[in-house]
Design brief:
It contains 14 helices and 19 strands. By secondary structure, the protein is of the alpha/beta class. It folds into three domains: 203 residues, FAD/NAD(P)-binding domain (3-Layer(bba) Sandwich); 95 residues, Alpha-Beta Plaits (2-Layer Sandwich); 73 residues, no CATH class. It is globular, with a radius of gyration of 22 Å. This is FAD-binding domain-containing protein.
Length: 458
């Protein structure tokens, strides 16, 4: 990649910050990643409290990660990450329907968020020109001549004086805490148009070790559905552990953080044989809780006169209901989009980036918002298109429970490998809308299922 600038500064060393630093390395001679937390945390860290909860990297994210950092999958596996065939080793129940088991083309690499982030951080830190500046709070932007020229940071040490870091490009990857929109308003560039869907999801997670003879498999996911706005994900990760995460809309469906209440909540979701394994599991840690108030999308691409030299990525740009596990994969999509924009040179980079990324965000955002609005408890306008889409998705999910072909296509869409429009293909629509009109399918489903080894135990 040709060099287009001298210095880029990335604000925040979460997954989005790390990926964007990877995209910038080579295009800028130096890339500095400024982070509030110090050093490399082996466990979860304060700046990423969600790191205690199960984090699934969707298939599309996995592909992009491997493309940006070749060999990273092997490193994760070497560090203990679990390898699974989602079609065979995962039990996905969505909209009340359990996806038909099948042999899929993808393999899933399952790791805790700290392991995933740690491996990615080590790889990015080893790139020429990339440097981490930890223990520093970013407190403001530096501007001049109509562009952003750097940032102001305050080291996290008693009595430390503010520092200025000058740069050709500043990228906000500070997560939901990112303050760019407020800083821009203060500089006279606001307000930034924003969409918000108040979902008020609460999370609770406990690390456990299942008994050796457990047939629970490598992941059990039960999604929320209308009438039951709660879900669970139990995901095998490194260290012979499963992360057991439960989630529900705040209020009546808020996951309890006490042992008894936690188990009672799990009992309402887990298939009976999985629940038996959970009852016999060894407890490896305390129950951690988290609250997620709303889906947020900032539309920088709609702004006029945005200063040059400033980009925003990750949760600071758009953050999704975590139930759909899209956040890290969308950060991958954004980093990939940035890489393409950098290839075309520095001219108009800010505007080109926000336009390109807005297009990449459209599908995941619409899918997440439509799914959220299928819950009567979530406030928001349900357009006829959203109602129709949700009704159709319900039919696809039902078909995916009996038809391996529909299950695989649905998996590819929620894994962000294929656009949602592929679910409207005649071959899928026929099986979703006229199940009795596809006589060959049930027989095929039985054959595929019979070919699946019984070690998953479902
Ligand atoms: C409970 C929960 C479960 C989730 N599960 C999944 C999942 O299964 N799959 C998935 O893909 N996504 C999941 N997500 C979303 C995922 O965590 C994020 O989308 C993803 O990590 C991208 O985040 P980010 O890097 O933009 O921000 P973050 O991960 O929040 O990182 C922001 C970084 O910026 C730093 N920072 C913040 N403010 C400052 C400042 N002023 N100065 C310096 N540094 C600062 C923070 O310390 C942090 O390191 C989940 C989220 C939650 C809440």
């Amino acid at each position: 990649m040709r060099s287009i600038g001298e210095h880029a500064v990335v604000l925040g060393a979460g997954m989005a910050g790390l990926l964007v630093a990877r995209a910038l390395a080579g295009a800028y001679e130096r890339v500095t990643v400024v982070e509030r937390d110090r050093g490399r945390a082996d466990g979860w860290r304060k700046g990423v409290p969600q790191g205690r909860h199960a984090h699934i990297l969707l298939p599309r994210g996995q592909r992009i990660l491997e493309d940006m950092l070749p060999g990273v999958e092997a490193e994760l596996i070497g560090a203990g990450a679990v390898v699974a065939d989602p079609g065979a080793d995962h039990r996905f129940t969505l909209g009340g329907h359990t996806l038909a088991r099948r042999r899929g083309a993808e393999r899933a690499i399952q790791a805790s968020r700290p392991l995933l982030e740690g491996v990615v951080r080590d790889r990015v830190g080893a790139l020429p020109g990339v440097r981490f500046a930890g223990g520093r709070d970013v407190v403001g932007l530096l501007t001049g001549q109509g562009r952003v020229t750097g940032v102001q940071v305050v080291p996290r040490a008693v009595g430390a004086a503010a520092e200025e870091i000058r740069a050709d490009l500043v990228v906000d990857a500070m997560g939901r805490a990112g303050r760019t929109r407020y800083w821009l308003e203060r500089l006279g560039h606001g307000p930034v148009p924003r969409e918000e869907v108040k979902v008020a999801v609460a999370y609770a997670t406990r690390p456990i070790r299942l008994p050796l003879d457990s047939g629970a498999g490598k992941a059990v996911v039960v999604g929320p559905r209308p009438g039951s706005p709660r879900g669970m994900a139990m995901v095998a990760v490194e260290g012979d552990r499963h992360l057991l995460t439960i989630a529900g809309l705040d209020g009546a469906n808020r996951p309890p953080a006490d042992e008894e209440g936690f188990l009672d909540f799990v009992r309402t979701l887990a298939p009976p044989e999985v629940f038996e394994s959970i009852l016999a599991a060894e407890v490896l840690g305390e129950i951690a809780s988290h609250r997620y108030p709303s889906d947020l999308r900032n539309h920088y691409e709609r702004m006029r006169g945005l200063p040059a030299g400033l980009l925003v990525t990750g949760d600071a740009l758009c953050s999704f209901n975590p139930v759909y596990a899209q956040g890290m994969t969308v950060a991958c999509l954004e980093a990939e989009a940035l890489r393409r924009c950098l290839d075309a040179g520095p001219r108009g980079l800010t505007r080109r980036y926000f336009r390109t990324v807005a297009k990449a965000l459209n599908d995941p955002w619409r899918m997440a918002v439509a799914a959220d609005l299928s819950m009567p408890e979530v406030e928001g306008r349900r357009t006829p298109a959203i109602r129709l889409l949700n009704a159709y998705v319900g039919r696809v999910q039902a078909a995916a429970a009996r038809d391996t072909g529909v299950a695989e296509q649905f998996f590819r869409v929620i894994g962000l490998l294929d656009p949602p429009a592929t679910l409207l293909r005649p071959s899928i629509a026929a099986r979703a809308l006229c199940p009795s009109g596809s006589p060959a399918r049930p027989a095929r489903t039985r054959r595929m299922a019979a070919a699946v080894p019984r070690d998953g135990g479902f």
